[in-house]
Amino acid sequence: MARNKELSSETRQSILVLRNEGNSMREIAKKLKISFNAVCYSLHRTAQTGSNQNRMRSGRPRCTTEQEDKYIKVSSLRNRCLTGAQLAASLNSTRKTPVSMSTVKRRLQDAGLLGRVAKKKPYLRLANKKKRLRWAKEHRHWTEEDWKKVLWTDESKFEVFRSQRRTFVRLRPNEKMVEESLTPSVKNDEGNVMVWGCFGGGEVGDLYRVNGTLKKDGYQSILQHHAIPCGQRLIGDNFLLQQDNDPKHSSKLCKNYLGEKQSGGILSIMEWPAQSPDLNPIKLLWEELDRMVGKKCPSSQSNLWEVLQESWGEIPSDYLNKLTARMPTVCKAVIAANGGFFDESKV
Length: 347
Known about the structure:
The protein is of the alpha/beta class. It has 3 domains: about 10-50; about 65-110, no CATH class; about 125-345, Ribonuclease H-like superfamily/Ribonuclease H (Nucleotidyltransferase, domain 5), CATH 3.30.420. Helices cover about 45% and strands about 10% of the residues. The protein is built from 14 helices and 5 strands. The protein has helices at about 10-20, 25-30, 35-50, 65-80, 85-90, 100-110, 125-140, 145-150, 215-235, 250-265, 280-295, 300-315, 315-325, 325-335; strands at about 150-160, 190-200, 205-210, 240, 265-270. The protein has a 5-stranded mixed beta sheet, sandwiched between helices. Strand 4, helix 10 (about 250-265) and strand 5 form a beta-alpha-beta unit. Helix 2 crosses helix 3. It starts with 8 loop residues before the first helix and ends in an 11-residue tail after the last helix.
């Protein structure tokens, strides 16, 4: 628990004056907005010592003033990327005696400003935020059953060796090149698999392996042989197709093809705001699939594809229903953020 701030000599003097005017200790506490115990202790100590000054105490005094603490906090809030060393250097340029970086970090921590790795998100222009906000408002009253009529689609890449972080190991002397201490890596695309997938109506659809670079012709083939058949099978006619604004998705070839299907009553196309991967629940599905695959430790590119197909078929309907059930909350979060990004862990 944080230590309470000590009463100033001015506050103690005010307590004494109010007490002499006949106010009760509870009335004094209410007027000065301090605790009853603080008033009681201050009067008792003044009666004993005959003084309302702070007691002399041992220990090192605080090396920064309240104004300097405020400067550290405000500077960090104005530029969130400033490091402790940079803030210390800026503060020390106006001081005779320098303060350490550790002191600055403690002041930041006292102010509730903690260092964290910045999350990477697509850049949102004002126009992007307006479109996200409009989309959220248009769909905020949709029920869970409404969201189940959407066929969610996307592409994702999976790697044989998933972790890109540094790995720490313990070695004996001269064991730097022992096989157990090495992190394997592969060249270019030799260790990954690109896939297209979809889900809707509480069930997963096809998982299609993309070989090479996916272009508009290849994507049109996916729509014809996988997306539309899956939508009709999982949801039924006039299902709602969701896709992002990738150039191949919005190509003239694919637009014309989907336009024909829409005219035939086979599907409807959901208007999707740009720069909005956080709104698509299939992103969470990819993360879950990646965790499942990682537990099975695929050893090669071909083995990775086998494991992906196996894990894809093991995804339970309950999990998929949870993804669609959270969509009303997602809409509310986007509206609360005025079209900006929201904390996905709280949705």
